[in-house]
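Lab notebook: predicted structure, single chain.

Context: the supervisor wants predicted structures on file for every construct in the current expression panel, including those that have not yet been purified. This is the next one on the list. No modifications to the sequence; it matches the entry in the shared construct table.
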Amino acid sequence: MDPRALCYGVALAVMLSSVPTPAAPIGEAVVVRSPDGSLAATFEVRDEKLYYSVARGERQIVAPSKLEILAGATVAIVGHSARESTESWSPVFGQFSTITDHHRQLSLSLDVNNTPMTLVCRVFNSGVGIRFVASEESRDKELRFVSEYRLLEGVAHFAGERGRSVDWFAHPASNESQAQLGRAVANGVPLVSVGADGLHTGYLESDLYSAEGFELMRLRPNRSGGSVSAFSSAVSRGEGHVTPWRVLLVGDSAGDLVMNTVALNLAAPCKMEDTRWIAPGKSLWDWRIHGYDNGSFNYGIDTRSYLHMINFCAEYGIEYLTIDDFWFISAGDGEMVVSPDVDIERVMNHAKENGVRIILYYDRRKGDFGDDKLFGYYAGLDAAAIKYGFMGNNAAFTRKTIDASAEVKLLVNFHDGPTPMVGVERTMPNLITREFCHAQQDSRRAFTPESFLRMAMVSSLTGPLDMSNGNFDILGINAGERQKGPRQRHSYISTVVSELARTLVVYSGIITLPDAPEEYLKKPDLFEFLRLMPTTWDESLAPNSKIGEYLTVARRSGEAWFVGSVNDQAARTLPVKLDFLEPNRVYEATVYEDAEDTHGVENPEAYTVRTTTVKQGDILAAKMAVGGGHAILLRPLDLKGQEH
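Prediction complete. Output recorded below exactly as produced.
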């Protein structure tokens, strides 16, 4: 059996060490350090208020900032203890087959307005998590979790669930940039700060799923400059009731943050006893294909089109087909009015006979079917997953939806500005992906090469993203040959190799392929890369990264490596250092490149493919056009021709 098949069997999670370690007092301050000693979180009471600060070596990351759990309360530290813990665990799916959780934990006993509370802080080598744990004495009181971040000089980057982004200079900050930040952070999504020395820090939360009553944290800038407050609230349920973790990620590059596992390690372990039915994979998506005419077949929202797509998926090993809006007309009171053009039973039966799983869309705006019956209805149709649209940013509703869909073995893909629930793919891995970003082809104002790169390095900190990259017919889409193409023609800036690389660069449990089957078959060499590319990985890293400008991601499955690089609108060449390859081994590298005359606006579909041999330590040059990209498939020569 796959060691990841049963969640509680996942735990290579043997505790390698769990030993008490003293928290070092400095006067009235209490300090807890990371296992390697590089990162330190300090807690102290000033004027009866609780403050914390974070430093890496001599470099202060967060200046003394206020923490609060009961509004306006006085605070006293009455005791503390610390321990160090190491364990390894295996996610059901993800960017890594094994994740190490090595941290030091401080438990700080507090008196908050004569109410006992516990603050828990975990410090990793690459991040910090802070949460409060309620006591029975706090029952029915309003918990208002406020954590301030007093940032040092640098630039803050923000990319929201709808693709909006802004740069903000922390010191000095103009009124205009502060106002921009205020509009941006109102959605409560990750904030990434880049210091003048290149230190990258990310601010988000984790394990909201376990924090009943809490909604997604909101961020509020201090308009005098230099600080942001994160806040959320709930009514205390008494003993053991937890807040979400407030998370600080630390790295030397944006790529370090993208590959950071602190938020996952802070999330609650898997609650599902059996996860064998959870299968990541690739999905063809009907929504962007509507109106495509190959000369003899015109795709629409009808049975004929769905059967045609299923046949393509079955022939070429695409595990899923996503059937989006308008397959049903209305819903309500446990009844679904299906479109007269769609024989849904025939479609589902044909998919089952051909080994293709179906993801079915649902939109509550068409009427409330009733969530107590909805998931059973979808499971009864033999759907493998529900793509839930327009459910809104509602954490309580999101928790119920995740739980209810898991009961009937349905995967979930949340769309249209959902609650991200950072880390929940560890706790409830049926949440396979979400659109906490802006999907491909939507709103060119929000989706440019630069905004793609912001979302790939900021929005992605929340977890798997469904961004639906991978269009091969860029010219046709730009010319308006699709019903659901960009509203403004010739506004879609990308190259076909960039599209290939984007499917790899942005991690998702379901990789949504938005183009017509015929367009993939017109470029069989590029399509081969997509077909061979797995959806879950043994190892991932990001050797090149700069927010809004470029990103290189390398992922390993077995002994094969897939590498993708994506560029903004400035042509450039990036060195891809192959230090990650196994020593003393020769690899065949299939290289997919923008051609000499490729241009993201003027000539987006020109590309070349070449083959070479490489070894550890070699450097391949990723030469990318305006809006361009680069991809590499690396396989050991002694395994050539074998499936990995």
